Amino acid sequence: MNLKWTKKKLTVVVIPDVNQAVVRLRIPNFLPYAAAVLLIALISISLTMSYLHMHSLSTAYELKSELALINNERNETVNSKEQAIRELQNEVITLAKQAEQMKTKVAEMKTFESDLKSIAQIDSPAQGGKETPAPKGASTAAAIGEGGSLIPVTQDEILKLGQQTEVDMATLGKEIEVLRSNLTVTKQKVEEKQSLLRGTPTIWPTTTTTVTSNFGYRRDPFTQNPSFHSGIDFGARENDPVYAAADGTILTTGSDSAHGNNIVIQHPGSIRTWYMHLNKINVHVGDNVSKGQTIGLVGSTGRSTGPHLHYEVIKNGTSIDPTPYLQSLRKDDR
Ligand SMILES: [Zn+2]
Question: Which fold is adopted by the domain 211-325?
Fold first, then answer.
């Protein structure tokens, strides 16, 4: 039956122009159907191609987005690394500045130690090592970034700064060790000086400022005959406090017709001080007393014409003029 159908013919009449002959085309009957099928196939192929094209475009777009994302992430990583490097560089600069400040402080401490020795009159150089001069080279490093304008630094400069700072820190560490050792020795020497000063008579032994009789030759107040006065008399009031002129130990306390109630203090070294005519003795033999401590009260006991303190300084067993030992009126002065 199909065969019969395909054998049928269709006549297509083509009229090109009024003056030309009519063309008759005899085409097989199935040809329009075949053309229709072909057209549908073409449309289908075209749609498929179009779909595939769209799909590939979409895939390309996705890939592009992914690539952009990866690129962003990479940039962020690079940025964060650069940021970390910048922070590290800034830390190196901060450390270098700290090293500079430390150098200044160490130099100040050296001056302080030197002043201390000068004040305490310690001439001998402190033990523990010689003084190391301040390291050079870092001053240029510390100048980076100063001056207001932005001067970028290179990686090499930062590296050198870091190395210099490391050297500076190591040098400072050694200097501080030497300084600590020197200061320990100086402190010990100052303490020795302080102890010596505390043990040296320097203060007036009572509150008065009136000297009624100096050290030396004089007319005896009882006999009016020339005599030698082996101390200084202070015209104090009865029961005024009598102060130890320096740190020491009570050597003797006693009472006799010449000296009245009296106290002798042994100070470090070979110096003794003697306090006479007291109304009251506040200390006992063997007591340790400190400079300015009240040891008794002014009186007029013994060979005395009225309330006063006879004060004597004895060096190597001989009474000497106490005047050089009266350096301060204030009993609190050491
Ligand atoms: Zn006297």
Answer: Glucose Permease (Domain IIA) (2.70.70)
